[in-house]
Amino acid sequence: MAAIAPLTAGAVFVATAATDAVYVMFTSAVIARKRVPAASWSAIWYLLSSYAVISYTENAFYVAFAAAGSWVGAYASMTFLHRPSGGPPVGAAPE
Fold this sequence. Notes:
By secondary structure, this protein is mainly α. The protein is built from 4 helices and no strands. It has helices at residues 6-31, 35-48, 51-57, 62-81. α1 packs antiparallel against α2 (35-48). The N and C termini lie far apart (59 Å).
């Protein structure tokens, strides 16, 4: 077993905690049906989890595309789900 680098272990811990906290904020914004906050939290979520993109492409510039795509995807999804108040939410069981 390789030695554990304390700095790396700490960085992984902080990055994972931040990513999960942002995911909770994203989910909260989705439940509240707030498009811009949901899209923004989604983009931040992808920025925090961009390690895989950098690892696979070896080019951090692609992270900008991941964050932008995340923002657009979340905003579009929230636009589709957005309904005037008083109506049943999308996916609700028929009465």
